[in-house]
Amino acid sequence: MLPEAGGVKGGARDRARDRGQGQGHETYTTCSRYVVVGVLPIEDTLQTSVQTLLMPPPDLRDIDDVEAGARHFSMLTDDSEAEKQRRLVADLKAMQANGWRYWIPDKDPRLRRLASDMPHLLFVAGELDLSRPAVAIVGSRKPDEYGEAICRILTTTLATAGVMIVSGGALGIDGIAHTHALEAGGKTTAVLGSGLQKPHPHTHKSLFSKIVQSGSAIISELPPSFPAAKFTFPARNRIIAALSDAVVVLQAGENSGALITAAWAQASNIPCFAVPGDIWYQMSAGSLSLLRSQIAKPLISPADLATVPELQSLISAKWPRLTNRPWGIPNSWIKATAPQQPKGDPTSTAIIQAIGSNVLSADTLATKVDIPAGLLAAKLIELELLGMIIKLPDGTYMSTQNTTQKDP
Length: 408
What we know:
The protein is α/β, with parallel strands linked by helices. The protein has helices spanning 10-18, 25-28, 48-54, 66-75, 81-98, 145-160, 173-183, 205-213, 232-242, 258-267, 285-292, 346-355, 362-369, 373-385, and strands at 60-61, 101-103, 122-126, 134-139, 164-167, 188-191, 217-220, 246-250, 272-275, 297-298, 359-360, 389-391, 397-399.
C-alpha cells in the first residue's frame, strides 16, 4: 500500500511500530539499520566504519539464474503465455547485451524495512555498491536558483565525504544530485520509474550512461521493456527511501512526488530532513509542511545529518558560512541578475576555473594559477565581495559560478 503524499496512513505506520522500531527518526538514531541482521545487540551504537562491514552485499544474479528468471516471468502481464515468453526472451537479450543483472532483495536489511511492500525483483545496470552510507536527495523538477545551489553544494559535500547519493533520475533536483555526485568523484544510485531499456526521462540519456560508466548504478523493479507511467513513479519512491540512511527533501511543492518519498521514509522509520525555504514561495509549500508536521527535521547544514548513526562523520563536513545571498540566489520573486564581473581580468578568470567544483585552499590555488600570494589574496577578497566565490570557515574557497547551470 502506498502512503499518501501528505503523510502516512495507519497501516504502514503500524507495521513499523509492530516491528519495535517506533515512530520518527529520534528512535532510529539508537537503532542502526545494520544491527537488523542480528550480529550485535540492538542497543549498540556503531561507528560508520563498523556498520558498513556488517551490511551484506546485494544478492545479484546473472540472467541464467532459474529463481530470478521465474520471478521475471511472473512479472509480465501479457494475456497469453506465448506473449509472456516472447517478452521474457526479448528482455533477456537486452540484459545480456548490456550486462544487466537481477537483484533478489529478500534478505536485504535495507529493503526489508518495506515489509510487505518490498519489491519482488530488481534489475540492475552498473555496479551496485551499497556498502557505504547513503542519503536520498529528492525535490522539485523545476527548482529555482536557490534549490539548484543548495543541491549542488550539499551533494558535493556528501559525495566528497564518501556518502552515496540516491535519487530518482528525474529532471530538476534528481538530475542535479546525480550529476554533482559524479563530478565530486562519488557514487550515486538512480532508481527509475521505467524499465532499464526505456529509461525516463530520455533527456537524461547521457547522464544515465555516465552513472553506469563511472561505476555507479541504475536500478528498476520494472522489466527492462516496461515504459514509464504515472503510477510507476510513486511506487519507485519507496525504494529510494529504503536504500537510504536518511531522506532529504529539497524544495518541494505541496503536490511534489518527493512528499511520497518522505511518507515512505516515515513509514519505514528512516530519518527524514527538509531544507527550509521561502514561506511565500509555492515551491517551498511541501517542504515546510513536512517541517510543520514534524515528519521531517530541518536541514541547515550536513552536520544535521550526523544525528543518524551511519552519518556521524558529517558532523565536521565543510559548509559555507552565513553571509549575504550569493549571486544567482535572489529572493524567489525577484529575477536573478548577472554579477558584476571584472572585465578583461585573466587572473580572476584563472582563479574561478582553478576552483571549478572543488573546495581549495589559498595555498593550493597559488600553485594552480602560479601568481604571488599577495595578488592572490587581493583577488580572492574581490571575488568574494562580488559573490563569485564563498570562503568556508576553515579558510578554503568554493565557487558559486555553477549555481545557475540547468539540469542536464
